[in-house]
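User: Here's a chain of 117 residues. Predict its fold as tokens.
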Amino acid sequence: MNTSLADSAGTYEIAGRKIVRLGFKEHPLGCMRVLAAPIPDSDDPVYRMVAERRDITRSRVLDRVRQATTEGALPPRTDAEAVVGLVYEFLMGISTQARDGVPAETMQRSADALLSL
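Assistant: Prediction complete.
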């Protein structure tokens, strides 16, 4: 099966739209894994757990980019690490935007633009 990264993003899009629709006012906006990144205490067990989760996410994105390259959805000479950097940095940035109140429609257009590259 030859699926693009945009096709694979469907699951994440559904989850993201659900979170935006729920609009919990008492729940912090953004992603804990991202927003906890600036805490520099590597001895803190919460920091270590969050950092490990970020590593897992990055690894999964890398696996998916490599799979897309193998399946022909991305060109054979795709720099998987560079694509992962682009996608992962987008995810980190959009979390900060959500926390800062950027409208969901704006973030969706940004995600659409990224997936169209």
